[in-house]
UniProtKB/TrEMBL annotation:
PANTHER family for the chain: GTPASE DER (PTHR43834:SF6)
Stated name of the protein: GTPase Der
Matching PROSITE patterns: G_ENGA
InterPro entries: AAA+_ATPase, G_ENGA, GTP-bd, GTPase_Der, KH_dom-like, KH_dom-like_a/b, P-loop_NTPase, Small_GTP-bd
One GO molecular-function entry: GTP binding
Function: GTPase that plays an essential role in the late steps of ribosome biogenesis.
Length: 433
């Protein structure tokens, strides 16, 4: 799994600007779901051969009460604990503040390795601007400008120095499924039902217990790998101090999967935490199957109410197949694997250039793109720019004039013809030349 960098700092030091810099490369392929406004707080990036995940704790900032700083938000503290590296951002223009010192104190207590980042240093002499921050006792500060992009690669290199280069795996040839959901929705129960037996988990291995667990199984001669994020909580039952839900491990599991099964609890309202996890899935562009669990013991009226409630609230996930199951009684489970197969096939689909181009040309003949200014966009060919999620890149001229509605028309056409169900899909235009 990829190392996760967590960005910490008081408001306005430039965390979200730095976040955008560090995740910039992925912007083009993240899921693009209309009607969903969300702040981006988690994303993926890479320098050289080192991929990483980033989490910005800016969204979890505590309310500042009457000039006295409230303790850090619980989620921020947990993210710091679980981070592979913490980046503590300070403002080089404003200089060292009392608030910075309080955060530094908390960070020192965490025992984590901290990288001190002095932001907004464009046009300033590094030695001068960083000098006063040495007193925080967090080592050599790294001077950057998130806004101008100065020194960002060096920063990422420093942050990732302890992590090995990742040799790109051969794309696995079977579904790798992350089973995710908030605590108590029934993840462990579902996994046990799927595997047909109670599994024994190693409890007492420090450092490994919080990691997700990978389990291989076969069904009808097909191979699957389950990423069990519920493994986390067993530790929680032993040591109550550890939170049951780990945002970082869930994010990492989703990133590492090619199909995500999101479990919701029919007996509880959709919560912020459910929405948060759905946000991770969309951000990572993963194929998705939704399982509404605990469907047992409900009467027809309750079921109808829940169904209509869900279809309204989950409209932004309507690309996903939805199943009503009982993990406890095993009902509805059989249909889950075929949906996973479909989602996997779509996420990892091979889309040959000639066939993509034929579909493109036919779509353009049926509905030519509207003129933009003096000239009409010309589409010449399409090729596949990536998978998991599929990315289709269209080449031609004047493509910067193509309206969003037309892009969506092409996206729907490709989705229909190549049967790219259950997965986010991205169609981009190659601009220039
Ligand atoms: P956050 O609250 O920590 O997430 O901070 P933001 O990323 O929202 O940035 C706060 C303000 O600082 C915004 O007005 C940014 O444009 C500005 N800012 C961020 N990075 C830089 C930088 O490198 N140089 C300068 N001069 N301003 C920056
Ligand atoms: P996890 O935290 O997501 O792994 O959830 P668990 O699998 O540990 O389940 C939490 C609780 O919900 C347990 O008491 C389960 O017995 C119960 N549960 C799980 N699946 C079902 C189901 O399909 N129906 C009902 N009624 N209860 C369930």
């Amino acid at each position: 799994m990829k190392p996760t960098l967590v960005l910490v700092g008081r408001p306005n030091v430039g965390k979200s600007t730095l976040f955008n810099r560090l995740t910039r490369t992925r912007d083009a392929i993240v899921a693009d779901i209309p009607g969903l406004t969300r702040d981006r707080h988690y994303g993926a990036g890479r320098v050289g051969d080192k991929p990483y995940l980033v989490m910005d704790t800016g969204g979890f900032e505590p309310v500042i009460k009457e000039g006295i700083l409230h303790a850090m938000a619980k989620q921020t503290i947990q993210a710091i604990d679980e981070a592979d590296r913490v980046l503590f951002i300070v403002d080089g223009r404003q200089g060292l503040t009392a608030h910075d010192k309080i955060i530094a104190e908390q960070l020192r207590k965490s025992g984590q390795k901290i990288l001190l980042v002095v932001n907004k240093t464009e046009g300033m002499a590094t030695a001068v601007v960083t000098a006063e921050f040495f007193e925080l006792g967090l080592g050599d500060p790294c001077a950057v400008s998130a806004m101008h992009g100065d020194n960002i690669n060096e920063l990422a290199d420093l942050a990732l120095a302890d992590f090995p280069e990742v040799v790109e795996e051969f794309s696995s040839n079977h579904p790798k499924i992350a089973i995710v959901g908030r605590p108590n929705v029934g993840k462990s129960t579902l996994i046990n039902t799927l595997l047909g037996e109670e599994r024994v988990i190693a409890f007492d291995q420090p450092g490994t217990t919080r990691d997700s667990i990978y389990v291989d199984f076969t069904h009808k001669d097909k191979q699957y790998t389950l990423i069990d994020t519920a493994g986390l909580r067993r530790r929680g039952q032993v040591h109550e101090t550890i939170e049951k839900f780990s945002a970082i491990k869930t994010l990492q599991a989703i990133e590492d999967a090619n199909v995500v099964v999101l479990i919701l609890d029919a007996k509880n309202e959709i919560s912020d935490q459910d929405a948060h996890i759905a946000g991770f899935i969309l951000e990572m562009g993963r194929a998705l199957v939704i399982a509404v669990n605990k469907w047992d013991g409900l009467d027809e009226y309750q079921r109808a109410t829940i169904k209509s409630d869900l279809s309204r609230k989950l409209a932004f996930l309507s690309f996903a197949q939805l199943h009503y199951i009982s993990a406890l009684h095993g009902t509805g489970i059989k249909k889950l694997l075929p949906s996973i197969d479909i989602a996997y096939a779509a996420a990892m689909a091979d889309l040959p250039t000639p066939k993509l181009t034929r579909v493109l040309i036919a779509a353009v003949e049926k509905h030519p793109p509207p003129r933009g200014g003096m000239s009409r966009p010309k589409m010449r060919y399409a090729h596949q720019g990536g998978s998991n999620p599929p990315l289709i890149i269209i080449h031609g001229s004047m493509l910067n004039h193509v309206p969003e509605t037309y892009r969506r028309y092409l996206e729907n056409t490709f989705r229909e013809i190549f049967k790219l169900w259950s997965t986010p899909l991205r169609v981009d235009f190659k601009i220039g030349h």
